[in-house]
Amino acid sequence: MQIRFNPIDPAAEAAELVAFLCRNEWPFHGSARLDEVAVRHRIAAGHYWNSDREAFWIEAPERIGYLALEDLADLADGGNPVFDLRLAEQYRGRGLAVPILRALAGQVFERFPSVRRLEGQTREDNLAMRKAFRKAGFLKEAHYRQAWPTGDGGYLASVAYGLLRGDFETGTVSSFDWAD
């Protein structure tokens, strides 16, 4: 399966971005439902494309999702990009996250030669994404208790995964000693 990440032009594609983000539910994100007014405000404020964030359509070959690379402004100082991945509801549960994560890692490591690692986080109850991270070669590195607001006043753990450039290039998953 060929995965492509096509840059979103928020000004030219505002209607498509609003439709995509507001017509789908996002049960494992901060808000399960996004508000059209809020998304349009974010577009106008430059939220989806700026020096710290770039947004892309995920196509395989049809448009199946949205991806944002974040923390890009920190790369010059040795920082690591993180990402926001959202698949349209009709494409979830099809095993697409693993090839998307692998394609994303390839793109990031090729485009940013100084990047040593790629990071992602998900909620503790998003078992499908946690499994996809592992299958794509990411290693669980942290479990932040009660760190992810659920939108109903509660909190769940945020689980962080990382993929090292060297592991990606060799197809291995290096580990570390959890005991301290």
Number of domains: 1
Question: What is the third-level CATH name, the topology?
Answer: Aminopeptidase
CATH class: Alpha Beta
Our measurement of the CA-to-CA distance between the termini, rounded to an integer number of angstroms, reads 42 Å
Shape: globular
Helix-strand sequence: EHHEEEHEHEEH
> Biggest β-sheet: count, sense, barrel?
4 strands, antiparallel
Task: Bin the helical content.
Answer: 25-40%
- Order of strands across the biggest sheet? 1-2-3-4
Q: Considering the protein shown, what is the CATH homologous superfamily?
A: Gcn5-related N-acetyltransferase (GNAT)
Tally of DSSP helical segments: 5
Protein name: RimJ/RimL family protein N-acetyltransferase
Domain N-acetyltransferase: 3-162
Organism: Arthrobacter russicus
Pfam families: Acetyltransf_3
Structure description:
- This protein has 180 residues and is α+β, with helices and mostly antiparallel strands.
- It has a single domain, classed as Aminopeptidase (3-Layer(aba) Sandwich), CATH 3.40.630.
- It contains five helices and seven strands; from the N terminus they run E-H-H-E-E-E-H-E-H-E-E-H.
- It has helices spanning 14-23, 36-44, 97-111, 127-135, 165-170; strands at 4-7, 53-59, 63-70, 82-87, 117-123, 139-149, 155-164.
- The strands form two sheets. It has a four-stranded antiparallel beta sheet with strand order 1-2-3-4, with helices on one face. A three-stranded antiparallel beta sheet has the order 5-7-6.
- A hairpin with a 5-residue loop joins strand 6 (139-149) and strand 7 (155-164).
- Helix 1 runs antiparallel to helix 2 (36-44).
- It is globular and about 45 Å long.
- It starts with a strand and ends in a 10-residue tail after the last helix.
- The model has no long low-confidence stretch (mean pLDDT 94).
- This is RimJ/RimL family protein N-acetyltransferase.
- Residues 3-162 form the N-acetyltransferase domain.
- InterPro entries: Acyl_CoA_acyltransferase, GNAT_dom.
- It comes from Arthrobacter russicus.
- Pfam families: Acetyltransf_3.
